Amino acid sequence: MDADSLLLSLELASGSGQGLSPDRRASLLTSLMLVKRDYRYDRVLFWGRILGLVADYYIAQGLSEDQLAPRKTLYSLNCTEWSLLPPATEEMVAQSSVVKGRFMGDPSYEYEHTELQKVNEGEKVFEEEIVIDKAVAIIPRGALFKTPFGPTHVNRTFEGLSLSEAKKLSSYFHFREPVELKNKTLLEKADLDPSLDFMDSLEHDIPKGSWSIQMERGNALVVLRSLLWPGLTFYHAPRTKNYGYVYVGTGEKNMDLPFML
Amino acid sequence: MEDSTSPKQEKENQEELGETRRPWEGKTAASPQYSEPESSEPLEAKQGPETGRQSRSSRPWSPQSRAKTPLGGPAGPETSSPAPVSPREPSSSPSPLAPARQDLAAPPQSDRTTSVIPEAGTPYPDPLEQSSDKRESTPHHTSQSEGNTFQQSQQPKPHLCGRRDVSYNNAKQKELRFDVFQEEDSNSDYDLQQPAPGGSEVAPSMLEITIQNAKAYLLKTSSNSGFNLYDHLSNMLTKILNERPENAVDIFENISQDVKMAHFSKKFDALQNENELLPTYEIAEKQKALFLQGHLEGVDQELEDEIAENALPNVMESAFYFEQAGVGLGTDETYRIFLALKQLTDTHPIQRCRFWGKILGLEMNYIVAEVEFREGEDEEEVEEEDVAEERDNGESEAHEDEEDELPKSFYKAPQAIPKEESRTGANKYVYFVCNEPGRPWVKLPPVIPAQIVIARKIKKFFTGRLDAPIISYPPFPGNESNYLRAQIARISAGTHVSPLGFYQFGEEEGEEEEEAEGGRNSFEENPDFEGIQVIDLVESLSNWVHHVQHILSQGRCNWFNSIQKNEEEEEEEDEEKDDSDYIEQERFRIYPPGQHGYPQISFHNMLLQSFNPTFGLEHMPSPMAKSLKIST
Fold first, then answer.
1. Can you tell me the distance from the alpha carbon of A71 to that of A58, in angstroms, rounded to the nearest whole number?
2. Is B351 helix (H, G, I), strand (E, B) or coil?
């Protein structure tokens, strides 16, 4: 969720039951402002909270002008001091996927695995966050548009989805470089608007039904929850510009999803 | 200039009420953005009625004609005098222009609509002359573009269109002579079609013809959409000038798209909105009823207040504490839940009620309330189980009558473990659920042990509909309401904890040895509880205890022996009851929950599963209990 509209976003996303305590909220407001200034980001998003056994990680992301460029990730344990998470190499990504289980809450904790080397928890947090972000960060259709020069910009004329559009999964896109777009048939591509439809839509996510879409407050708020990564909540108030997503969870993938549906 | 144009002006006056036009036109033309001293100003001179549009020479681009239409009505008095003077002065316009613009907003709409209808089929000057209203521009448009009338009805600021034209023709304007400008646009257009005999003083120069052609091109209607570029650009610029976005040039294309879309959306709005918002209104109505219910009954209020104090928890206070921990549903949702709970206590005879929590589902969520009924106000009996058993017996008899050749199976399914009585064990509390605060509360059926046993083996999402079937393996006996109830029971048994000493058993002696059902069921708050230091509570888990009975692997809290035993064996068991008292204490404190409760419970389950039911002991065997003591 955008750091500028943090309070409103937290209120709208509170239906999932997990939120932030007032002291954390207050410190987030100020510290994210400072982060934006220090790192010179165009926008700072509060990504969410990963619950650990001993302590929680608070994660924020910084975006540059081009919205689709790789985002920088920062973490904090107390919502006041933020540090950049080191970028992960592919080996580390592979390693972290093997090490399962909850996070401890101590960035220097080392996981031991019989086959691989020890994995630092800090890196594991980062990779987990990257994985989750790639999988389930969402943007409503029309919120970003692509200019002919390449970079993607926030669409300032985005007025929000209409009610009928808001209930359909096809109006939401993954907030990442498209993976499946090229696989579409020519017929489908003909209907797309290249300035708006340049990301993957949620419709074709596998497994089908891994998103739960609900209207709360009697059609005044649409909430999408990921069932594959439990804890990811996306909210959008139709016909307004308010939208955002936040992850509050343990950082574990729900591997039992096909059985639970 | 005026003199020469006066005849023409007269003509024009006939068409437009016109007087107001001149000042308007002067103002519009003189807008600061278009610095050219518009020749359009001469239009002001038109006050005199003009008979022959056709007589006018061409000045294709008189944006003022558009501007005129809104002006036509109100402006009477101002007309003549300012006209010749004002156009010449670009400086004068800016301030009057602004209010003029706003004023134009109201009249043009009405003008447009009225004008469109009669003018639709008649692009030519004759009807215009007859119509006294200000409609010059509309016939002008119709003449130019075939299907364009509806366009005009949507133009918000016709006078601004005038300015548009001005900008396009900037360079050319200076050269134009006033006579030419005095002519209306429509006239000039007509000139294209009907070369005006006589009236025109000035032969159209090449420049003028070019301008005329350019404007005609701009006014050409698209064959696809019925728009024309002229109107579209004027709409867009109007919108930009009204909204004044930052860096408008960057979002220019988006604005263009929005303006085009706006043409279409209006017609559908009236129908669509009704359907879409109905659910919103329904929920809002129900929740409004929630807010009002408190004020309905005045007479019995005192009595109700007493009961309400006992029954209803202070949900807002608890929510405050939870919020400090980062858990919560948001203030207004919590408040609505509080009101819904109040409604529940008003409609049912409830001793005590508590907000248990919220369970997320795929389509809808559940809000769960834990309720304890007042003494003697119990719910309906469950006769269904008895009926089922009788049916089974009947079927077995039927089979026996068949041919004896078929081998009969001697398998007798183990007797179903009966559910616990209400108010005991897993059924100690009754649970109500609703989908959203404001919706009616539904009571969940009591849970039976078989459901708990199978619920431990499956993992399914809730859909939000209580009657949904649960398709799983092993097959779950029941539908979603039963599964929900089973999960609630498991969650309560596993996670409801309290600090050590907060609850104590009721002080009734003599019960310790009797219990057929085992375990002391009732506990109450300890009035002498003084609280434990926070540090003690945080550092070790030994200060926390479960206060809800653990559910055995059998699915019940109190052991049920399903195997028939002799009486002798039962007597032997009685002797071991002394040990069982000690064990009961252990049981109440069971063991401090481990990290998030997982490892310890599984350990306990393992113990119980290894427990051999044939012993028939109601409680755990003593060696096991002693080993468990370590955990405290």
1. 16
2. strand
Q: How far apart are CA B239 and CA B229, in angstroms?
A: 15
B244 contact partners, CB below 8 Å, separation of at least 6: none
- Cβ neighbours of residue B148 closer than 8 Å, sequence gap 6 or more: B141, B142, B219, B221, B226, B228, B231
φ/ψ of residue A104, rounded to 5: -85, -45
Return left, alpha or beta for B338; rule: phi > 0 is left, psi -120 to 50 is alpha, else beta. alpha
Q: Does A169 touch chain B (CB under 8 A)?
A: no
Instruction: Return the amino acid letter for A219.
Output: N
Distance from CA of A155 to the nearest CA of B (A): 8
How is residue A181 written in tokens?
A: 């777009």
Q: How many CA atoms lie within 13 A of B215 on its CB side?
A: 31
Neighbour count for residue B269 (Cβ, 10 Å): 9
Determine the Cα–Cα distance for residues B174 and B264; give it in Å rounded to an integer.
39
- Distance in Å, alpha carbon of B332 to nearest chain A alpha carbon: 9
Partners of A23 on chain B (C-beta within 8 Å) are: 324
What is the rounded CA–CA span in Å between residue B515 and residue B501?
Answer: 23
Provide the token pair at A144. 């970003």
Residues 6+ apart with CB under 8 A from A249: A18, A48, A50, A51, A229, A230, A231, A232
Percent of chain B exceeding pLDDT 90 equals: 5
d(CA B378, CA B349): 9
Identify the bridge partners of residue B327 per DSSP, sorted by sequence position.
Answer: A18
The tens digit of pLDDT for each residue in B357-381 reads 999 988 888 999 998 887 665 555 4
pLDDT (tens digit per residue) in A39-74: 888 888 888 888 888 888 888 888 887 777 777 888
Q: Could you report the per-residue pLDDT of B109-133, keeping only the tens digit for each?
A: 444 444 444 444 444 444 434 444 4
| Contact between A219 and B258 using a beta-carbon 8 Å cutoff | no
**Residue B221 DSSP class:** B
SS3 A226: strand
Q: For position B368, what pLDDT does the model report?
A: 93
Give Cβ neighbours of residue B407 (< 8 Å, ≥ 6 apart). Answer: none
Dihedral sign (CA A167, A168, A169, A172): negative
Q: What are the backbone dihedrals phi and psi of residue B569, each rounded to the nearest 5 degrees, phi first?
A: -65, -35
Q: Do A218 and B328 touch (CB under 8 A)?
A: no
Whether the CA torsion B111, B114, B119, B125 is positive or negative: it is negative
Q: Which residues of chain A have pLDDT under 70?
A: 87-101, 110-119, 218
Q: How far from chain centre, in Å, is Cα A125?
A: 14
Query: Which amino acid type is present at position A150?
Result: G
Higher pLDDT, A219 or B8: A219
Q: What is the rounded distance in angstroms from the CA atom of residue A233 to the CA atom of residue A215?
A: 13
3-state helix, strand, coil in chain B (%, to 5): 55, 5, 40
Q: Which of A35-49, A55-69, B548-562, B605-619 has the highest mean pLDDT?
A: A35-49
Q: What is the pTM of this model?
A: 0.61
Q: How far is A164 from chain B (nearest CA, A)?
A: 7
Bridge partners for A75 per DSSP: A59, A83
CA-based nearest distance A256→chain B, Å:
8
Separation between Cα atoms, residue A46 and residue A10, nearest integer Å:
10
DSSP state string for B67-115: HHHHHHTTTGGGSTTHHHHGGG-GGGSHHHHHHHHHHHHHHHHHHHHHH
Which residues in chain A (8-47) have CB-CB distances under 8 A to chain B?
Answer: 11, 14-24
A69-88 residues touching B, CB cutoff 8 A? none
Measure CB to CB from residue B364 to each of A18, A23, A214 and give the nearest one. A214
